[in-house]
Amino acid sequence: MYYNSIIETIGNTPLVKLNKVTKGIKGTVLAKVEYFNPGNSVKDRMAVKMIDDAEKSGKLKPGGTIIEGTSGNTGMGLALTAIAKGYKCIFTVSDKQSQEKINILRAVGAEVIVCPTNVAPEDPRSYYSVAKRLSHEIPNSIYPNQYDNLSNTAAHYETTGPEIWEQTEGKITHYACGVGTGGTMCGVSKYLKEKNPQVFALGLDTYGSVFKKYKETGVFDENEIFPYMTEGIGEDILPKNVDFSLIDAFIKVTDKDAAVMTRRLAREEGLFVGWSCGSAVFGALEYAREHLKEGDVMVIILPDHGTRYLNKIYNDTWMKDHGFLESRDFATAKDIIQ
Ligand code: PMP
C-alpha cells in the first residue's frame, strides 16, 4: 500500500489525552496533534483544499504560480501541494516570523519575501499588500488569500471536524482552538455544532488582537491592536473565515503564559509543539478549571511542531531575556545542590 504523493498523507491526525498539565481538572482533555501532517501543521489541510478549489474553478492553470502572505505554516502546506501538482510558489512573510520557518519554506523550493510587521495591513509594504501586488503583476498566478478564502473553513468542515467527532465517538462537549484566519476554529465548530448544537466552542486570542473585544461588543477597536510575539493567532483585521456566530467565547492569553505552557507540554506530556499550542492549552484549561464537569470531553487543537521555535521559546537564554522564565525555572543542578 502506498500514497501517490506526500499530500495524500494529510489528515487523520491522532487525539492524545493530556495527563499532567490537566491536574485538578474534571473531565477528559484531549489534544488533536496536527504536527503529524506532512508539513508539520494544521495548515496542510486548507492549503490543499484552496489549490484544489482554484483548479476546479479554472483560476489556477498548469504551470501557474501560487502567491500568498503566510506566517510559514500555510506556506509549507502550499509548497508541498505545489511540488505534488507542479506549481511555483512565492510567499510574503512578516519579519517577526521565526528564521526557521523562513528557512523551511526555502528548503522546499519556495521564494520568500520578508516584509515589515509594524505597518498597517493597507500599507504598501505590508505582507498582505505585497502578496496582492505580485499576484496582479505575475501572469498565470493566483493569490489564494487564506484570510478571506472560504475553502479554508471548508477544509476543516470536511476533514478536521468529522475526525474529531468520530475519534470522540460523538462524546465531545467542548472544543478549543486558537484563532488566526479562523478557518480551523470555524470549520470544525460548524461541523460539531451541526452534529450537536450543545458543543461549546472556545476561541483563543492574544493580547494585541481585535477578536475578543469584537465578539463581546461588536466594535472593531483599534486600541486593542499592538505588537505581540505569539505566532499564528490573533489578528488586526477581521478575516472572512472568522464567523463569530460559531464561536461561543474568547479568552486572551499572554505571550509569556503561552510560552511557559508550550514548554510544559514538551516536558510533561512529550508533545514537542509550537507556541500557539501553549496559548490554546493555557486558555482552554483556564476555562476547563471553572466549567468542565465529570464526563465532559474537551478537544484542543495543537496547530504545529516545536522545531520552528527552537531559537525562541525552547531557548532558555531567549526566555530569560524576555522575562518569561522565573529564576527557579532556570536553576542548574549546581544551584540545587548548593
Ligand atoms: N497556530 C499557528 C502556528 C498557525 O500557523 C495558525 C495559522 N495562522 C494558527 C494557529 C491559526 O489557525 P487558523 O488560521 O486556522 O485560525
From TrEMBL:
<dbReference type="GO" id="GO:0005737">
    <property type="term" value="C:cytoplasm"/>
</dbReference>
<dbReference type="GO" id="GO:0006535">
    <property type="term" value="P:cysteine biosynthetic process from serine"/>
</dbReference>
<dbReference type="GO" id="GO:0016765">
    <property type="term" value="F:transferase activity, transferring alkyl or aryl (other than methyl) groups"/>
</dbReference>
<comment type="pathway">
    <text>Amino-acid biosynthesis; L-cysteine biosynthesis; L-cysteine from L-homocysteine and L-serine: step 1/2.</text>
</comment>
<protein>
    <recommendedName>
        <fullName>Cystathionine beta-synthase</fullName>
        <ecNumber>4.2.1.22</ecNumber>
    </recommendedName>
</protein>
<comment type="similarity">
    <text>Belongs to the cysteine synthase/cystathionine beta-synthase family.</text>
</comment>
<keyword id="KW-0129">CBS domain</keyword>
<dbReference type="GO" id="GO:0004122">
    <property type="term" value="F:cystathionine beta-synthase activity"/>
</dbReference>
<dbReference type="GO" id="GO:0019343">
    <property type="term" value="P:cysteine biosynthetic process via cystathionine"/>
</dbReference>
<keyword id="KW-0663">Pyridoxal phosphate</keyword>
<keyword id="KW-0456">Lyase</keyword>
